[in-house]
Amino acid sequence: MDMTPEFLMLAFTLILALVQIGAAGMARTAELGGKWNAGPRDGETPPPGKLAGRLMRAQANLFETLPIFAAAVIMAHIAGKDGQLTFVGAHLYFFGRLIYLPLYAFGVPYIRSLVWLIATGGLVTVLVALFL
User: How far apart are CA 74 and CA 78, in angstroms?
Assistant: First the structure.
């Protein structure tokens, strides 16, 4: 299988997912300490603070669409539907998700939602390409 631009965007998105897991975990550990992180976490855990909560929600938001994006990119390649639509859609999705993370972390309203729409539009664009 060739490393198409769409697969490259998928690979970068997977790296972004790992970055988000690490960022949310580090923020939570900074709040609760290394002892909590190393422990069994059996008891009640206090709610996350602002930054950790935002990073955790941004991570969850990515994980809602990542399986769809991955499946769409793989399906497009297997079906021979790689082209301008999948190229543009994959780039919009990745760069939208990349920009979304700091906007969410810093609590930027409206622009964050616009960037989310752009990323989701990229995902929809890849899906549309499957049917053309």
Answer: 6
The SS3 call for residue 85 is helix
The number of residues in the chain equals 132
Q: Give the DSSP per-residue string, 91-116.
A: HHHHHHHHHHHHHHHTT-TTHHHHHH
Residue 1 pLDDT more than 70? no
pLDDT tens column, 56-66: 999 999 999 99
Give dist(CA 117, CA 111) in Å, integer: 10
Distances (CA, A) of 8 to 38, 60, 61, 70, 87: 35, 22, 21, 11, 10
pLDDT at 31: 94
Residue with tokens 């497009």: 76
The fraction of the chain above a pLDDT of 70, given in percent, is 98
**Residue 130 DSSP code:** T
Tokens of residue 22, six digits: 């690490």
Q: What is the pTM of this model?
A: 0.94
